[in-house]
Write a structure and sequence with these properties.
Blueprint: E1 19-21, E2 28-32, E3 35-39, H1 42-58, H2 62-72, H3 79-95, E4 108-115, E5 119-120, H4 125-139, E6 147-149, E7 155-157, E8 165-170, E9 176-183, H5 185-188, E10 192-196, H6 203-215, E11 225-233, H7 236-247, E12 265-266, H8 268-280, E13 293-303, E14 308-315, E15 321-327, E16 330-334, E17 357-360, H9 365-372, E18 380-389, H10 392-403, H11 410-414, E19 417-418, H12 443-451, E20 457-460, H13 466-475, E21 478-481, H14 487-493, E22 495-502, E23 511-525, H15 532-536
Parallel strand pairs: 3-5, 4-8, 11-13, 17-18, 18-19, 19-20, 20-21
Antiparallel strand pairs: 1-16, 2-3, 4-9, 6-7, 9-15, 10-14, 11-14, 12-13, 15-16, 18-23, 21-23, 22-23
Helix pairs in contact: 1-4, 2-3, 3-14, 6-8, 12-13
């Protein structure tokens, strides 16, 4: 019989995180049965959760900010790479004021905790943590994004951003450890699971497979990404969860070699290979270039002999996670960077991406399209004038209206449509954080709406399907991409007024009328059917075939 050896599936090494100690009561010490216990009050869990979600809604890790700055210092970065990186750094500086959150999609609240065997609570830990999350979303300028299913098909916003996803594990000794995450819909939608087999477990085939899948991620989730790839897993869900943790750099201290116990490990060599692939894709930091990804984490897990799950996940430019720990010394939270402005360069035309075409939206739709028409895909624009905001629920309502014999609303005929949904408006400000949502979710409406005279100029983030390019060619439409991520900067610098225009009962999903100034955009799809992303990316399957 083989000797029993216990090895954790994901054996993390020493924690070198820099923490700050919060002004909260320390756990109380008590002794029983010859053991020392730490009693953590429910109020402490509530206060810690509230503080964590407030902190990561406005501040980022220093390492993430340094990676953005490194794009500006890289002579190989494209002008569009540098423009996006600059805008994201400016957004971080605005958000650090503590009023406007860095992204309008303030995310699903996710908590993964490990409670040591010598930690005592009243047993209602998830309730206390949920209460802290509720307090933060109620008191700050964050957005409620959680929809409660009333029936299989009817939904209603919970109005609290609850329920949260909370997992509490029994692990460790005399500490209570936490990973708090705020995960927006865009990056969450770029988590994928593939059920493969042993046939893919060689370098050439694995790189070909990953090149194709990574290239298909697109830019809708606001790159540059922190990309995670997991090969193997004791189950499909364990592969996906590991990918999420790796994208948050939670597993950086895993061992870098495997052994016969089956422990998970990082493959540093494959990480370098995949990072090189992402640099060759041509997608760049949203609008072409080198920086599709900041970095890559690859984790190899054990697997059942008849199964080989492969999971892919990303953390986007709103890279929101923070570690915390409660121990005998007190309550500690990971130190995030409170002075992101130090990473900004001196403003120069070169740093901001070169020539810009000014577009006046205070004109007819025909005149707007005529002004955009001469400029090739990839051209940077600056928009000023009225924009109509409409997204998923409104599009569905308008489709029902058209099916019942109605006509396209004038506001979609007369103005460009911006796919977005705002966070709450701070007191004394014109707008809350108001960045773009993923364009691809509206792809199925484009041909029908353009045929009815609407949506002839669209504005959002990310790439679109070939059917959108065909519709634009057929009806003379345009899709303009804007930078995904800098929602706080857009609210502060680009939005002059906001008012509800229609469907007020839908809350943040209502139709809004914005007056914008110097709103950044790029021509992505033109009225001849040219698609910037289709032209930027080289043939994907050829990239993984480089000799070693």
């Amino acid at each position: 019989m083989t000797e029993f050896v216990h090895t954790p599936l994901l054996p993390r090494g020493e924690d070198t995180t820099e923490y700050v100690t919060l002004d909260m009561p320390r756990p109380k010490l008590s002794r029983a049965a010859g053991r020392t216990f730490l009693t953590v009050p429910g109020e402490t869990l509530t206060s810690l959760a509230a503080h964590a979600f407030a902190e990561m809604s406005h501040f980022l890790r220093r390492s993430h900010l340094q990676q953005l700055r490194s794009i500006l210092d890289d002579p190989e970065a494209s002008p569009n790479d540098r423009y996006v990186a600059t805008d994201l750094l400016r957004n971080a500086a605005v958000s650090s004021g503590g009023v406007l959150p860095m992204c309008q999609d303030t995310g699903t609240a996710i908590v993964m905790a490990k409670r040591g065997r010598h930690i005592l609570t009243d047993g209602a830990d998830d309730e206390h943590i949920s209460r802290g999350i509720h307090q933060t979303f109620a008191s700050l300028n964050l957005r409620y994004s959680q929809l409660a299913p009333l029936t299989m098909y009817e939904e209603r916003n919970t109005g609290t951003n609850l329920p949260a996803q909370i997992e509490i594990h029994a692990e460790g000794d005399a500490s209570y450890e936490f990973l708090f995450m705020a995960k927006g819909g865009g990056s969450a939608n770029k988590s994928f699971l593939f059920q493969e087999s042993k046939a893919v477990l060689n370098r050439a085939d694995l790189l070909r497979f990953l090149t194709e899948k990574i290239g298909s991620l697109g830019t809708a989730a606001c790159p540059p990404y922190h990309l995670a790839v997991v090969v193997g897993g004791t189950s499909a869900e364990s592969a996906l969860k590991t990918a999420k943790l790796a994208s948050a750099r939670y597993l950086d201290t895993l061992p870098t070699t495997g052994d016969r116990t089956g422990r998970g490990f990082r493959d540093l060599e494959l990480e370098e290979d995949i990072l090189a692939i992402t640099r060759e894709l041509g997608l760049g930091a949203q609008f072409g270039g080198k920086y599709f990804c900041h970095d890559v984490r690859v984790v190899r897990l054990p697997r059942h002999a008849g199964s080989c799950p492969i999971a892919i996940a990303v953390s986007c430019s709103a890279d929101r996670q923070v570690l915390a720990r409660i121990d005998a010394e007190g309550v500690h939270l990971e130190q995030l960077e409170h002075d992101p402005a130090q990473f900004l360069p001196a403003p120069t035309p070169e740093a901001l991406g070169g020539e810009v075409v000014e577009v006046d939206l205070n004109r007819s739709m025909d005149e707007i399209r005529e002004q955009i028409r001469p400029h090739p895909v990839g051209t940077r624009l600056s928009l000023s004038g009225p924009l109509v905001v409409a997204r998923d629920l409104v599009h569905a309502e308008i489709r029902r209206h058209l099916a019942d014999g109605g006509t396209m609303p004038d506001y979609l005929r007369n103005h460009p449509v911006y796919y977005a949904g705002p966070a709450k408006t701070p007191e004394g400000m014109v707008s809350g954080s108001f960045g773009p949502t993923t364009a691809g979710r509206m792809d199925g409406y484009v041909d029908e709406f353009q045929a009815a005279g609407g949506s002839l100029v669209m504005l959002a983030k990310g790439n679109r399907s070939p059917e959108v390019a065909r519709a634009c060619k057929r009806h003379g439409g345009f899709y303009l991409g804007t930078v995904g991520g800098p929602a706080a900067r857009i609210a502060q610098d680009c939005i002059a007024s906001v008012r509800v225009l229609d469907f007020e009962e839908l809350g943040m999903e209502a139709v809004w009328l914005l007056e914008v100034r110097d709103f950044p955009a790029f021509v992505v799809v033109d009225d001849r059917g040219n698609d910037f992303f289709a032209e930027a990316a080289p043939p994907l399957l050829s990239i993984g075939r480089r000799p070693r």
